[in-house]
Amino acid sequence: DQQVKQNSPSLSVQEGRISILNCDYTNSMFDYFLWYKKYPAEGPTFLISISSIKDKNEDGRFTVFLNKSAKHLSLHIVPSQPGDSAVYFCAATGNQFYFGTGTSLTVIP
Amino acid sequence: DTGVSQDPRHKITKRGQNVTFRCDPISEHNRLYWYRQTLGQGPEFLTYFQNEAQLEKSRLLSDRFSAERPKGSFSTLEIQRTEQGDSAMYLCASSSDGEVDEQYFGPGTRLTVT
Percentage of residues in chain A with pLDDT exceeding 70? Predict the structure, then answer.
């Protein structure tokens, strides 16, 4: 069963605009949520995380929002840059680590 | 330290053969993870080590799969009697003790079973 879901396989955004990537989860016992970025032929790279007791975490151009009642988190990238083009995975931790299926972001110059 | 390394990067094997992959984590990291990733999917958790102790195993890890981390440093993942369904990217990650399990991934080993 897919405990972490990313329902949008792809997203295209103009450079300078906001990118919003969404993720839904089913298990209310997850402790932390993380976002990873992946370029072709490389392993995923950690981007930002949020504890289950918080609702927002910001790091530069990246902000993650957590809505526990809706079991939903989102990653906002603003302003988007062409170098942000990659596949983004959300992940959740409990006793194991669960990844979503990824969203391919394309930032158009 | 240049990060997590995996060897080999690519492996082609015939069905029924055994294969072994190696992962060298970041030296100060005591946690080590193995994942499998197939096309269009996110990484799927296989197993996790805290130092040399294997603490969690996914139900995806069938009897044909075994992982070791004998001295709490590098780890090996062996697949016996490979099947075509084992074809995937095998990722290793490591992390240090901490509140947030920020994992650093290696480049992966791509296995093709013919």
Answer: 99
Residues 30-59 (A) with a CB less than 8 A from some CB of B: 32, 34, 36, 41-46, 49, 51
Say yes or no to pLDDT of B1 above 70: no
Distance CA A30, CA B96 (A): 19
CA-CA distance, B93 to B3, in Å (whole number)? Answer: 10
The answer to whether B50 and B94 are in contact (CB under 8 A) is: no
Helical (H) or strand (E) element with B21: strand B19-24
Chain B residues within an 8 Å CB radius of A4: 42
Question: CA A70 → CA A24, A25, A34, A67, distances in Å?
Answer: 8, 9, 17, 6
The pLDDT tens digits for B63-99 are 999 999 988 899 999 999 999 999 999 999 999 877 6
Q: Which helix (H) or strand (E) holds A42?
A: none
Check whether A100 has a pLDDT greater than 80. yes
What does the block give as tokens for B37?
């990733």
- The string of DSSP codes covering B47-107 is EEEETTEEEEE-TTS-TTEEEE-TTSS-EEEEE-S--GGG-EEEEEEEE-SSSS---EE--
Closest CA to B86 of B21, B2, B6, B1: B21
